[in-house]
Amino acid sequence: MVEKIMKINCYHCNSEYIVKYGFDSINGKQLYKCNNCGKYSRDNPQYKKYSDNFKELVIGCYMEGMSLRGIERKFKVCRQTVSG
Ligand SMILES: [Zn+2]
Hints:
By secondary structure, the chain is α+β, with helices and mostly antiparallel strands. The chain has 2 domains: 1-45, no CATH class; 52-83, no CATH class. It contains 3 helices and 3 strands. It has helices at 52-63, 68-75, 79-83; strands spanning 18-23, 30-34, 40-42. It is elongated, with a radius of gyration of 19 Å. It binds zinc ion (ZN). Residues 10, 12-13, 15, 34, 36-37, 39 line the site of zinc ion.
C-alpha cells in the first residue's frame, strides 16, 4: 500500500522537499520540515475560525429572514462573520 502523499510546499521557500515531522504538541496538527530551508510548516496554516458548514447554516438563517441581531444571539457570532 502506497502512502498517500500530500502535495504541499514549504510555506517559507515554496520548496517541495518537505518531510513529515511529527505533530504539533499544541493543536495536534501534522508538522512538516523543509529539507531546503530547514524551517517547519504546518498543515492548513490558515486559521479557520468557522467551518464552511457552520457558515452555510448561519447564512441559511439569514436568507430565511432572521435578523443579523437574532443570528448573533443564536450562534454567538459577530456580524462581520456573517456578512464576510
Ligand atoms: Zn523551505
